[in-house]
Amino acid sequence: MARPTSPSLTEAESRIMAILWEKGEATVRDVTDALSAEYDLAYTTVLTTIRIMTDKGYVDFRKEGRAHIYRAVLTQTGARKKALGSMLGSLFDGSPRRLAQHLIEDEELTLEDIEALREEFLSRKSSGKGEKS
Length: 133
Hints:
Layout: H1 11-23, E1 25-26, H2 28-35, H3 43-56, E2 59-64, E3 67-72, H4 76-91, H5 96-106, H6 111-127
Helix pairs in contact: 2-3
């Protein structure tokens, strides 16, 4: 039985996306070479992962001769939103307030961090960006 697709990027997909975000476009060989400094991955492993990411709509490609040149479709911001939404739903009952409370209580946010968040919140509120529709 096939595993269900992850609502956010897997670790392997995140590594590949980081390279595509950095380079803009890359072949499977480019990605494999970039990952080889830290990970011992076969070309076919990277190819399979990129094909899965293409099926999920995270990357797209164009053909140049026999080569496929891949580029990220999913932005870093989009990836963060997917991951955060998944985490909120599974760990915090969908509550941003519970996440914020966790960060304040367990992650040792400084007063400076909290003040910066407050400034961002007030800035968004005054510009109308933070309002729910």
